[in-house]
Design goal:
The complex is a heterotrimer of chains A (88), B (248) and C (116). Chain A has 88 residues and is mainly alpha-helical. Chain A has helices at residues 3-29, 33-53, 57-86. Chain A has one domain (3-86). The model of chain A has no long low-confidence stretch (mean pLDDT 93). By secondary structure, chain B is an all-alpha fold. Chain C is elongated and about 65 Å long. In chain C, helix 1 (6-23) packs antiparallel against helix 2 (28-50). The model of chain C has no long low-confidence stretch (mean pLDDT 91). Chain C is mainly alpha-helical. Classes of the chains: A mainly alpha (88), B mainly alpha (248), C mainly alpha (116). Chains A and C meet through helix 1, helix 2 and helix 3 of A and helix 1, helix 2 and helix 3 of C.
Chain lengths: 88, 248, 116
């Protein structure tokens, strides 16, 4: 790897880290559970990207499926189930 | 404590923690540094054991007991959720109405579902060679099955998802992992969860000793477990109604 | 150089904003979502500690055994926890759903007193 490649990789890592931190902040301050689930799905994708850049493809695979699909889906279904019980 | 007081107490504590953490970070080895004593030894051990994917080697060969703990946590969490979300005596099932889907959407789901399942199977079978393994393939397969819900409708999902059989598969996967540990006693000076099978040649499909078997057991536990979890939440969101809702 | 500590600081920041979400939450579903954010900070910290500049992923698929690789130990820890964490999230959400059924609310400040 040339010095130029290393600089580029570091730059990508920095961008990815800051992007992830911003998304995490947005996710924490989004009060509505349905909107939060959507932000969490994007955060999950961003984390998977970051893990790939950190040379962790195994973790990125787990994170991609869990972070973008399973966790947001669980939150959405819970929000819907709770809402259904309230509307009676 | 009112919400306002609670927030201020937290912000004060967070400021202290933040400053202390930032100070501690400057004392950590620099990011991207060369010194990784544990990593170097674990990677060397993976090569010695002929397991190309060093992460799989750490998960199942070098720290198999740790993974047994994770496996039990997974089992306990799924079991707890099933017990909490079972249908109460004052609740009843209602069939959600059938919805019409665009034929193109349905075709997309029909084509994509086998592709996802095939990808998951590949990830399990090659978990000791390339990135992947039981944990990843399990969640990918479980979320892939729910494509049927997005592309067709809930009834189709219920048909391809026999919950009772998957309950058993989940438990059997967890049990198989624990049972495979006893194979470790087969070797001389054997111990629980020792990777006792012959290790084969690096990068060949039949290598890594028991790692592919561990991966398969974990795949069954994780894949079935996550499908069952989502099934119970879908039930709660779409099907189960309380008695009051019925009268109201 | 800032890049020497930026990944660690990012992990710390994600941890704190996640906790902020938990502490100020007025809906238990949002609390669980924020806890998921907090949890992801541990993966960032672990993987940041294991990173080696110029190292490849710890998979000797088509690389020589002498190639420098990043730390596989922290990756194994993070990888299993991502999956187990999702099932624990499900358990917490099941508890939230039960609380909503018994008390008719998911606001933690309105959940006062015990009810059977």
């Amino acid at each position: 790897m040339t010095a130029q490649d290393a600089d580029l990789l570091n730059y990508l890592l920095a961008v990815s880290l800051i992007f992830t931190a911003v998304l995490a902040t947005v996710a924490a301050v989004t009060r509505d559970p349905v909107r939060q689930a959507v932000v969490l799905a994007v955060l999950g994708g961003s984390l998977a990207m970051l893990f790939t850049l950190l040379q962790a493809p195994d973790v990125a695979l787990s994170q991609l499926a869990v972070g973008t699909a399973v966790t947001p889906l669980l939150l959405l279904l819970t929000a819907r189930a709770v809402k259904r019980r309230r509307q009676r | 404590m009112s919400r306002r007081v609670r927030t201020w107490v937290f912000l004060a504590a967070a400021a202290v923690l933040g400053v202390a953490f930032a100070a501690a970070c400057t004392g950590l080895p620099d990011f991207g540094g060369e010194r990784h004593p544990y990593g170097d030894r674990a990677a060397a051990a993976a090569l010695r054991q002929q397991i190309a994917n060093a992460v799989a080697s750490v998960t199942f060969d070098q720290r198999g007991f740790d993974t047994l703990g994770e496996e039990l946590m997974l089992f306990g969490a799924v079991l707890g959720t099933i017990v909490l979300l079972r249908r109460a005596p004052d609740e009843r099932r209602v069939r959600p109405p059938r919805v019409r889907v665009l034929p193109s959407t349905r075709a997309y789901g029909t084509v994509l579902l086998p592709v996802v399942l095939l990808t998951a199977a590949y990830l399990v079978a090659h978990g000791h060679l390339t990135p992947g393994g039981g944990f990843q393939a399990g969640v990918i397969a479980a979320s892939g099955v729910h494509l049927a819900y997005l592309a067709a409708d809930y009834r189709v999902l219920e048909r391809i998802r026999p919950t009772a059989a998957l309950d058993v598969t989940h438990a059997a996967g967890a049990a198989a992992y624990a049972a495979l540990g006893f194979a470790g006693f087969a070797a001389a000076a054997g111990t629980y969860l020792r990777n006792a099978a012959p290790h084969g040649t690096l990068r060949e499909l039949a290598s890594g000793g028991l790692v592919p078997a561990f991966n398969t057991a974990v795949f069954a536990a994780v894949g079935a477990g996550v499908v069952v979890l989502l099934a119970h939440f879908l039930d709660q969101a779409l099907e189960i109604e309380s008695a009051e809702e019925r009268s109201g | 150089m800032i890049m020497d500590v930026l990944p660690y600081l990012t992990a710390g920041w994600i941890f704190l904003v996640g906790l902020y979400g938990v502490v100020t939450s007025s809906d238990l579903i949002h609390t669980v979502g924020s806890l998921a954010v907090t949890q992801s900070s541990t993966y960032v910290l672990l993987l940041a500690i294991g990173y080696r500049e110029g190292g490849t992923a710890p998979v000797y698929g088509d690389t020589s055994a002498r190639t420098p690789v990043v730390d596989p130990v922290v990756q194994a820890m993070a990888l299993t926890d991502v999956v187990v964490g999702a099932t624990v999230t499900a358990l917490l959400l099941a508890l939230v759903l039960q609380a909503a059924k018994r008390h008719g609310t998911t606001d933690p400040d309105q959940l006062t007193g015990l009810r059977g």
